[in-house]
Amino acid sequence: MTENGAEAEYHSKDFDFEELSRDVHNDPSLRHHLLPFESSGEDVRVGGEEGSDAWRKFHARHYSGKFFKERRYLLKEFPELAVPRDGGCKVLEVGCGNGSTVLPILRGNENVTLYACDCSVEALDYAKQVVDGSEVASFRDRFYPFQCDFSHDGFPSWLSSKPCQETTLHTELVSANVYSNKTSCYVGGMDFVTLIFTLSAIPFKKMPMVLAECFSVLKAGGMLLFRDYGLYDMTMLRFKPDQRVGFQEYIRADGTRSYFFCLHTVRDLFLQAGFTELELEYCCVKSINRRKEKIMRRVWVHGKFRKAE
Questions:
Q1: Is 183 inside any structural domain?
Q2: 3-state percent helix, strand, coil for the chain, nearest multiple of 5
Q3: Rounded CA gap, 289 and 191, in Å?
Q4: Strands across the sheet with 249-251, in order?
Q5: Pairwise CA distance, residues 101 & 32, whole Å
Q6: At what angle do helices 207-217 and 263-272 cross, to 10 degrees?
Q7: Tell me, what CATH number does 209's domain have?
Q8: Which of 34, 104, 199, 222 could be 74's S-S partner, Cβ–Cβ 3.0 to 4.6 Å?
Q9: Domain count of the chain?
Q10: Of 226, 207, 190, which Cα lies nearest the Cα of 77?
Q11: What are the pLDDT digits (tens) for 167-207?
């Protein structure tokens, strides 16, 4: 199975992380992943704008549904998203891409209003097409995508839990290319923020700022739901030595990057941003390529964090 595979298989623990770690440390061909990283100071690819530009180009090439499948496992991993709330529930999906998590969230809870941002206009347009094509009118009424380079500029002020004084939500939504007809001054903060395979795509040095932004738009008592690539995932082990741009941080030929998290790094990042840890663990799942008759070990980090009330 794969990251987007059957729900029943996705949640199983197929192998022990410590066993995988021992295998990696004992394999001489993988030694370059374990060495300390010393930067030459000459790599210009670590900048926020350059990284965002690479992802914009990536989504312009791969925004169709053939590349990203719907994440049907989402509400099993994060059942909080499906719980009805008095007064509705506001969710911000950070780095939504082409909308692979949009339909599961909208389908799972009829009183969710979903705000979704990405740096790629092409990906957002496709996400809107996915929602429009669902033939469920309420989905369109509860979905607000907007373009935002959050790793460089932060989030717009209308997402805040505090009233703004000098602008209207309608004006900012239009300027941000949001599909909305709201006229109130501000959204009022989020009940949930989702970071699903998004933080790893941002340069490590930018992560504290992004998490501080996520913290700022959450209501008191709100939750951040996290899932991303874990240390020694098969994707990490495929990178060559010259693709390293940091410790556990790699860059592809197209300029997109990926960081592979261990639990203590995730914990440190979130606690420093002000969050309280609720859940944090490795998900270790075997991926079977039946055509090549090959079993691959996937590692993801699953986490839930709260903003104190």
A1: yes
A2: 40, 25, 40
A3: 38
A4: 244-246, 249-251, 257-259
A5: 34
A6: 50
A7: 3.40.50.150
A8: 104
A9: 1
A10: 226
A11: 444 444 444 444 443 434 467 799 999 999 999 999 999 99
Instruction: Note if the pTM is more than 0.70.
Output: yes
Paired strand residues for 90? 113
Asked if the structure places residue 194 within a domain, the reply is yes
Instruction: Quote the pLDDT of residue 288.
Output: 80
DSSP summary character for residue 16: -
How far is it, in rounded angstroms, from Cα 63 to Cα 99? 9
Identify the bridge partners of residue 259 per DSSP, sorted by sequence position.
249
Tokens representing residue 28 in the block: 């001489």
Q: Which token pair is 300? A: 């993801």
Residue 172 phi/psi, 5-degree rounding, is -70, -35
Work out the angle between the directed axes of helices 121-132 and 48-62 (0-180°, nearest 10): 40
More confident residue, 128 or 48: 128
**Sole residue written with tokens 């949930």:** 192
Statement: residue 235 has pLDDT above 60: yes
Only one residue has tokens 């066993």, namely 19
Contacts of 153 (CB under 8 A, 6+ apart): none
pLDDT digit string (tens) for 64-81?
555 556 677 889 999 999
Q: What is the mean pLDDT of the chain?
A: 82
Provide the pLDDT confidence category of residue 158 given band limits of 50, 70 and 90: confident
261, 249 Cβ separation under 8 angstroms: no
In a domain, residue 179? The reply is yes
> Sign (positive/negative) of CA torsion 206, 209, 214, 220?
positive
In a domain, 270, yes or no: yes
